[in-house]
């Protein structure tokens, strides 16, 4: 699999360029917040405040002018002097030699380059979604049915997200590519406690994230239409999964009781066939575990190009896909 790494990286780069310039307009929307490619942006710093701009050019911005420090030893907030005394940090004393500085006349706009080295979208994410932020972006995320793990940098669905009210049917998978979700999926069917059950698993690319899902659903056995309800709190199962891309560990989810355990890595690119899920599912009793195993064996037969394997200990399954 390692021999495909160059191809995958190139594909990832092309996809990121396409996504960044796509109709979603994320870069366009954020363009008003900051300068991306050297364009100018109105800047009005507060009085007597010094803002660090460019560590390579040693530029500082004040409300009056841009001060350029040529020797990387002087920081100044005044703009009326043409010389300043340098502080020699290695000697711990002042040097009486004066150092010239260059002042630039103030203008209505100042060029500020930030978020370099491909970090623009990553920094936007930090601004919007980390818990320390107090703006409304996190409220929007929660309203969409998701939450954020800042330690792993992973998005995931809430236990009681609004999606739980709508259940699941195959139309969702059919429509997924139309909204930029390209994934592989497998379904395990079994009957237990007078209900038809389905466990579905997904892995792949979800827009500008890569991720995976485990969902449990059921329906009455006499329901002809193949539309499943999300399981109740009493029917939820303890489950977990580790997510690997190109044989490298990326993140983990669980173990926890859930009906739809998910994880999505922002600005991560993965091809479904090169993504691996290592799942653990715990069933409440032997009867349900036996019914599930029967359906799992049938599902394995259909996964030829992307095989499923499993081991079982008592009523707990470890499934690799």
- Number of helices in the DSSP assignment: 6
Note the beta-strand portion. Answer: 35-45%
Question: Which structural class matches the secondary elements?
Answer: alpha+beta
Sequence stretches where pLDDT stays below 50 over 5 or more residues: 1-55, 57-118
Instruction: Return Rg in Å.
Output: 27 Å
User: Largest sheet, if any?
Assistant: 7 strands, antiparallel
By oligomeric state, this entry counts as single chain
H/E series: HHEEEEEEEEHHEEHEEEEEEEEHEE
| Morphology | globular
Helix content: 10-25%
What's the end-to-end separation, in Å?
Answer: 15 Å
Q: Please give the number of β-strands.
A: 20
Report the mean per-residue pLDDT as an integer.
72
Describe, in plain words, how this protein is organized in 3D.
This protein is an alpha+beta fold. The chain has 6 helices and 20 strands. Strands 9, 10, 11, 12, 13, 14 and 17 form a 7-stranded antiparallel β-sheet that branches. The protein has a 5-stranded antiparallel β-sheet with strand order 16-15-18-20-19, with no helix packed on it. The chain has a 4-stranded antiparallel β-sheet with strand order 2-3-4-7, with no helix packed on it. Strand 12 and strand 13 form a beta hairpin. It is globular and about 45 Å long. The N terminus is likely disordered.
């Amino acid at each position: 699999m390692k021999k495909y790494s160059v191809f995958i990286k190139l594909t990832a780069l092309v996809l990121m360029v396409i996504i960044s310039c796509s109709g979603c307009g994320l870069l366009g929307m954020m363009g008003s917040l900051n300068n991306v490619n050297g364009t100018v942006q109105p800047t009005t710093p507060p009085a007597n405040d010094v803002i660090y701009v460019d560590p390579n050019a040693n530029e500082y911005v004040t409300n009056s002018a841009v001060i350029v420090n040529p020797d990387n030893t002087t920081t100044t907030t005044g703009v009326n002097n043409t010389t300043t005394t340098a502080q020699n940090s290695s000697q711990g004393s002042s040097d009486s030699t004066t150092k010239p500085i260059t002042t630039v006349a103030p203008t209505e706009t100042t060029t500020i380059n930030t978020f370099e080295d491909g970090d623009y979208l990553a920094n936007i994410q930090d601004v919007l979604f980390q818990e320390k932020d107090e703006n409304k972006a996190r409220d929007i995320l929660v309203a969409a049915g998701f939450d954020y793990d800042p330690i792993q940098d992973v998005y995931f669905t809430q236990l009681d997200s609004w999606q739980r009210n709508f259940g699941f049917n195959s139309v969702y998978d059919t429509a997924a590519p139309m909204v930029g979700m390209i994934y592989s999926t497998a379904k395990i069917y079994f009957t237990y406690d007078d209900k038809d059950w389905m466990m579905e698993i997904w892995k792949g690319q979800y827009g500008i994230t890569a991720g995976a899902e485990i969902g449990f659903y059921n329906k009455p056995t006499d329901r002809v239409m193949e539309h499943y309800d999300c399981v109740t709190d009493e029917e939820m199962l303890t489950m977990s999964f580790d997510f690997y891309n190109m044989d490298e560990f990326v993140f983990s989810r669980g173990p926890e009781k859930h009906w739809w355990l998910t994880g999505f890595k922002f600005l991560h690119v993965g091809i479904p066939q090169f993504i691996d899920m290592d799942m653990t599912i715990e069933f409440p009793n032997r009867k349900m575990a036996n019914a599930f195993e029967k359906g799992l064996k049938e599902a394995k037969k259909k996964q030829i190009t992307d095989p499923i394997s499993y081991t079982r200990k008592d009523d707990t399954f470890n499934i690799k896909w």
